[in-house]
Amino acid sequence: MIPSTDSPAVLIAALSGRALAACARRGGYRPLVADMFGDLDTRDLAEASETVPGSLTHGFAKDTLSAALDRLAAGRHVIGVVVGSGFEDRPGLLRCIAARHALLGNPAAVVTEIKNPFRFAETCALAGVPHPEVRLDQPREGIWLRKRIGGAGGMHIAASTRRDTARRGRYFQRRVAGQPVSAAFLAAGGRCRVLGLSRQWAEPAPRRPFRYGGSSRPAPLSDARAGELSDAVARLVSLTGLRGLNSADFLVREDGFDMLEVNPRPGATLDIFADAEGALFRMHLDACKGVLPDTIPVWPHAAAAAAFVYAPADITLPPIFPWPVWTADRQAPGSWVPKGAPLCTVLAETSDAEAAERLVRHRAAEILAHAEGAA
């Protein structure tokens, strides 16, 4: 659905707002985007956009982002703001946004509760959902991970060593085995509807061994195990105030599973679950009002995959750089991309999840060779 000039406008705030902007536009809304990158396709999708300074680890400054959202909303009838990544550990910023615009998603209190690792562990226990042990002090026995409270994208996770000490904002989680799987779900009034399950993988980097790499759907699980994960999400949601589109991350084994965390926002799998008709964005808004859909969106392909491409070294894109149609988050010609920063996203849609995953990996290698050769 192509929005008209009479269509409602919606603010989008995220470290990268392109996927949400595409989803909103397909849903018939006019996206107004404040994000950190200002990519070419984000600008094309948005009615208006602003590039806001920030960092992948610490998000946006409150005053800078608030001013950008106010400028985007000025003179327009805006229904509210949808937030993406960059707010999990910033409840104060969420409250600031909600004081000025209708927040179309989880409020600060819910985000704080769900991203507190100890409150989350307690909620999992009450719901009967398996969850790895967490603690504040440095464990002396067993294998543990060191994590930052409110971190996202896997860049805040590392193996714990005996040199680690207790530190503000840090906690330890017992390491468990399993295949990473994520459940995308809509929540409203203590109920939920799981849209689908995706397989996830990491793209390790020095000191960032769990950096997010990509995802593919559907996840290779039996119907019985998929049903168990969906049931776990439903039991957890029944004890929370979650609303709108969210995701839950699991580690799945032959003999069971553990729920690791919930991302209280539209997440990194938005590209592979977005439908051609834009129903997903409208479902998110409906769920924020307490209404869940009777049916889930129909995807144009049986399987899809998306992967982040990170710069292996400092790269300066040439003045002319022809981005392939299967890329997204396309940076402007001449952009300098520092080592380890996202270069773009690559996409694939096929009839088979494994084939889609192989294709995005091939395309990631192709775009890197092209960018490094042109630089």
Please tell me about this protein's structure.
With 375 residues, this protein is α+β, with helices and mostly antiparallel strands. It contains ten helices and 20 strands. The chain has an eight-stranded antiparallel β-sheet with strand order 15-14-11-12-13-16-20-18. The protein has a four-stranded parallel β-sheet with strand order 3-2-1-6, sandwiched between helices. The longest helix has 22 residues, at 353-374.
Total strands: 20
Q: Which strand-content bin applies to the residues?
A: 25-35%
Strand order of the largest sheet: 15-14-11-12-13-16-20-18
Poorly predicted ranges (pLDDT <50, ≥5 residues)?
A: none
Radius of gyration computed on alpha carbons: 20 Å
Key structural traits:
375 residues, alpha+beta, 8-stranded antiparallel sheet
Write the layout of secondary structure elements.
Blueprint: E1 9-13, H1 18-26, E2 30-35, H2 40-45, E3 48-51, E4 54-55, E5 59-60, H3 62-73, E6 78-83, H4 91-100, H5 108-115, H6 117-127, E7 134-135, E8 144-148, E9 158-159, E10 170-174, E11 179-188, E12 191-202, E13 212-217, H7 223-237, E14 244-253, E15 256-263, H8 270-273, H9 279-288, E16 303-310, E17 315-316, E18 327-328, E19 336-337, E20 342-350, H10 353-374
Parallel strand pairs: 1-2, 1-6, 2-3
Antiparallel strand pairs: 4-5, 7-10, 8-9, 8-10, 11-12, 11-14, 12-13, 13-16, 14-15, 16-20, 17-19, 18-20
Helix pairs in contact: 1-9, 4-5
